[in-house]
Amino acid sequence: MLFDSFGRIHNYLRISVTDQCNFRCTYCMPEEEYACAGKDELMSAAEITKIAEEFVKLGVNKIRLTGGEPMLRKDFAQIVESLSRLPVELTITTNGVLVDKYLELLQKSNIKTINVSIDSLIETEFEKITGRNMFQRVWQNIQLLLNNGFEIKLNVVAMKGHVESEFENFLSLTKDYPLEVRFIEFMPFTGNHWESNKVITELELLELAKLNHEVKAIVAPAHSTAKKYQIDNNQGRIAFISTMSSHFCGDCNRLRLTANGKIKNCLFGKDEIDVLSAIRNNQSIENLIIKSVSKKHKALGGQFSTDYKEIKAESIINSSMIAIGG
User: Which member of 12, 36, 255, 308 has the lowest number of beta carbons within 10 Å of its beta carbon?
Assistant: First the structure.
């Protein structure tokens, strides 16, 4: 099992399979032209599986595939089929555009839960945020997943001045559908022009919800990043990921593997350990994984204050979100 120096177990691996995306979301991709990793820089399907197997040997029992947009990989099916044979819970985060293409694969691979990123339910606003006129296709694919029995979580990046006008629309989804709408506090990454006054917190949104609804807390499972709530006894629920206003680092069990084969032990950490080169040189990566976990900081990558209003985004050493993986 993988324990860091603070006694936290690490059994959840998020694997970014590509840094390419068919959206250009403002909070994720830098405004300047972004150069995606070349084919030789990316992990191959076989290398992804080989690295994942090493993590599983060390106790990882949950793997999430992310990107970029993971379904853009031409060998996405090969990656999913291979990882689905491991003794892990396999999940995916996607923007939903290509779900219909891979529905049968997702069903065959025993994937139960899928997170879909969707930051607006208004077609014109959706296009402003993503840079693509794809709302109808994404919404149809969300419906497709629901109709086929998948557990769906909608990821909404909450930015002050944007989310408030659609907040009630998102809450209404929990009445009509058995899904979870998750509001994620806006986080700082290289190139995304983060400022503290753009953050709208869990408590602010919770108070907004309570103006018109009965809100009841739900006990979340261990290691959950989301605080969950029932609204008006609706069939769905809402949740808040309060990374900026109330971090959950004390119970963190997550590790990340970037598309170019580097371990990040924290979303906000500057430290990365290259395991892909070791794999290509036929070297063991067990000690590299253990080393990465042992170097994990107590909170927030050791880079900034727990008071998000004091954070100076320009002082943070990190990559853009698209390069790290969602």
Answer: 36
CATH number of 12-324: 3.20.20.70
The amino acid that residue 194 corresponds to is W
Query: Which whole number is the average pLDDT over 261-272?
Result: 91
Instruction: Please provide the DSSP assignment of 228-281 as one string.
Output: EEEETT-SSEEEEE-TTTS--GGG--EEEE-TTSEEESSTT----EE-HHHHHT
Both tokens assigned to 324: 């790290």
> Could you read off the pLDDT of 302-321 as tens digits, one per residue?
777 677 766 676 666 667 66
Amino acid letter for position 171: L
Residue among 11, 303, 142, 246 at smallest CA distance from 2? 11
Mapping DSSP to helix (H, G, I), strand (E, B) and coil, where does residue 309 land?
Answer: helix
Is 18 in contact with 261 (CB distance < 8 Å)? Answer: no
Stated as kind and residue range, the H or E segment containing 65 is strand 62-66
pTM of the full structure: 0.93
* Closest to 235 in 3D by CA, of 319, 310, 151, 298: 151
Around Cβ 87, how many Cβ atoms within 10 Å? Answer: 7
Instruction: Give the mean pLDDT of 38-55.
Output: 94
- Strand duo 254-257 + 113-117: pairing: unpaired
Q: Is 246 exposed, middle or buried (0-12, 13-18, 19+ CB in 10 A)?
A: middle
Q: What is the pLDDT of residues 95-123, one digit of tens each?
A: 999 999 999 999 999 999 999 999 999 99
Task: Find out whether 290 and 296 touch, Cβ atoms under 8 Å.
Answer: no
Q: How far apart are CA 236 and CA 153, in angstroms?
A: 10
Q: Which residue has the tokens 């077609």?
A: 123
Among 59, 60, 63, 58, smallest CA distance to 82 is for 63
Instruction: List Cα–Cα distances, 159 to 25, 191, 199, in angstroms.
Output: 12, 16, 6
Rounded distance, CA 310 to CA 144, Å? 43
Residue 216 is given by DSSP the state: E
How wide is the angle at C-alpha 41 spanned by C-alphas 36 and 45, nearest 5°? 105
Place of tokens 């993986």: 325
